[in-house]
Amino acid sequence: MWHDGRLCYGGDYNPEQWPAEVWAEDVALMRRARVTLVTVGVFAWSRLEPAPGQYCFDWLDQVLDLLHDGGIRVALATPTASPPPWFSLAHPGALPVTVDGVRLHHGSRDTYCAAAPAYRSAARRVTAALADRYARHPAVALWRVHNEYGTTCHCEHTARAFRRWLAGRYGDLDTLNDAWVTSFWSQHYSDWAQISTPRATQYLGNPGHLLDFRRFWSDTLLAAYAEQRDLLRAVAPQTPVTTNYVLGDWVPVDHARWAREVDLVAVDHYPSAVDGGAEEQTALVGDLARGWARHAAADPTWLLMESAPQQIHTTGRAHTKEPGRMLRHSLAHVARGSHGAMFFQWRASAGGAERFHSALVPHAGPDSRVFREAVELGAVLERLTEVRGRVEASVALAVDASSAWALRHPGLPSTRVDHHEELAAAHRALWHAGYGCDTVAPGEALDGYRLLVLPALYLTDDATAEWIRAYVHRGGHLLATYLSGTADAHARIRLGGYPGALRDVLGVRVEEFHPLADGDEVRLADGGTGRIWAETVHPTGAETVTTYAGGVLDGSPAITRHRHGTGTAWYVSTRPDDTTYRRLLDSAARAADIAPVCPDAPAGVEAVRRLHPGGSWLFLLNHTDRARRVPARGRDLLTDTEVDEAVTLPPGGVAVLRERLPSATGDETTT
Ligand code: GLA
After folding, report:
1. pLDDT of amino acid 165
2. C-alpha pair distances (Å), 432 with each of 284, 435, 551, 573
3. I need a surface site. Which of 329, 382, 392, 476 has the fewest CB within 10 A?
């Protein structure tokens, strides 16, 4: 067991930035806040190995002993995300090269090429030394490899590795030329040596080339992770290994695929929006993480490894979180299956690049609102130890890294279409309507889901098309949005009309796209509006749910519904505005016989239910600035009081109810 039953609570701890006197104070404060787990050593390479092959572990010995004596467990990190200056100077060829061919220099972090043999061997060496030293240290509960794999490189090491990867994937150049459609613009390759990484070039790059580079690089970073993991496992087989996922549209990692290689899915989450958006994003990330965790283990527990205690970072400004918001965000993650809430960081640094990043112990010290809220959060998490089980969800949302990457290629009819934004829009609509949902990868088992949503699942290979078809055929409800089914596994367009692979199941044939300009809307006959995209849709069996109103598409279908086998398939050819989307998904969910998690919850109150054979827990999070009354029954674990009819949540307040379940005799029993 990687945890000791308690929820994980704590964060990144950087004792290497502080004198030893502060360490003792840190442990005392951690105990006050009921911290259970801290990550140590993330960027400590130059302290651990000040010169090549010379290790300095005394300070870390002391820190781990202190933490252990204080009853605090450690996620021990390998420091390989930040090679020391001596490494970069000794191995300039291991420094990364940008898409424009510029070689970067040390002076920040993450400045290495993950395909460079010198980097890989230095990373293995320091990992092995750390593993040897601490494999049996009683404080070490978890290994955290590296930090947020996400760098990219275009150097010669990378190009060579890319060619090897391509040769493994395609076998011969004819197959590669065909997959990449290199007949276009005279790009035919007659020798493997002619292929480089997709560097900056004169005009639009080749979609197959760009896509395979992303896939290759995800595999390369994964191999860098896996070799460290294997070293750690070899000496400490009892200690699980993970790495913290970084999220963002620039990240070249297929998280679903990586999930099979970690013992525990761990994600970092930093919302980028302030008003309501932070809560919507938090819910989506929790559902994504749980979806990835299903690939990692039968028990889809995951861990929020990093989040910001006090700030929401938006472009150009750090917004200070309002009192209570840190607690609400943390519980939103726990509700969705995170085994706790971890932060970046424990103590705010006095200097360095992130000197103003928030921390549980801020610059002001423990006599601060943030630290008082940290103490409160520790106490709250202690009360939730009993919560377990799956998250109630009958809707599945498909997520696919390749579709996301391919929709960012140049040369698409619109630069505004984005798989993740389509996913977020669908999730937001479901979230506001109160439905629980899981994210799934194409091909995953769909038992138990009554509605499957495909948000611009652009790349649909034959197996995925069959997976969708079979689901609808046997009675599932499907809602596919525009561009789903359009391309094959190599990003080649499926001919004969869009949406390519899904024409039969959706009962439509799309003849033309009408991408919309920024700020433009199309009107829909049901009173709603559409953005970003519109299409000329010809039903070939589907019925029209609503049409476009006005403009060149006046009267032609915008949203359709089709019976296929014993199921129903909706097609949405535009991006409905939020209200219309919410109404649409509400209709699709009700038609699929799905009820909201807490049908009587007022607007602005998020409800998430955890279900286990031994119990049921309802999380209620009031994201509004008004008190909200929610009909519910059970024992509120936070106040330790019985709720008979309804709970009143103060503005921004939360409740976690151990629900009463109907017993066999019809009476209610508290679980
Ligand atoms: C990431 C990193 C941390 C820190 C935070 C700041 O999550 O892992 O080291 O840089 O971002 O937001």
Report:
1. 98
2. 12, 8, 31, 22
3. 382
Catalytically annotated residue among 306, 392, 422, 535:
306
The CA 637 to ligand 1 mean position distance, Å, reads 32
- What pTM does this model have? 0.97
Which of 162, 152, 286 is CA-nearest to residue 212?
162
Assigned token pair, 174: 């004819």
In whole angstroms, what is the distance from residue 665 CA to residue 660 CA? 13
DSSP states of 506-525 as a string? Answer: HTEEEEEE-PPPTT--EEET
Ligand 1 neighbour 535 (Cβ under 6 A): no
- 413, containing H or E segment: none
Is the CB of 343 within 6 Å of ligand 1? no
Q: What is the pLDDT of residue 156?
A: 98
Q: Which residue has the tokens 């442990």?
A: 27
Instruction: Tell me, yes or no, if 148 is annotated catalytic.
Output: yes
By the 10 Å C-beta count (0-12 exposed, 13-18 middle, 19+ buried), 665 is classed as: exposed
Cα(274)–Cα(343) distance, integer angstroms: 18
What averages of pLDDT result for each successive group of 10 residues across the chain (671 residues)?
85 98 98 98 98 98 98 98 98 98 97 98 98 98 98 98 98 98 98 98 97 98 98 96 94 96 97 94 98 84 97 95 97 98 98 97 98 98 96 98 97 97 98 98 97 98 98 98 98 98 98 97 98 98 98 98 98 98 98 97 97 95 98 97 97 96 56 49
Helical spans, DSSP H, in 383-458:
401-406, 419-433
79 lines ligand 1 (CB under 6 A): no
Ligand 1 midpoint to CA 416 (Å): 28
Spatial contact of 265 and 242, defined as CB atoms under 8 Å apart:
yes
β 634-636/654-662 pair status: antiparallel
Q: For residue 479, give the H/E element and its range.
A: strand 477-481
Res 101: pLDDT: 97
Evaluate whether 307 touches 341 at the Cβ level (below 8 Å).
yes
Does ligand 1 come within 6 angstroms of the Cβ of 418?
A: no
Coil, helix or strand at residue 656: strand
CA pair distance 415, 458, nearest whole angstrom? 14
Ligand 1 neighbour 148 (Cβ under 6 A): yes
| 306 counts as catalytic | yes
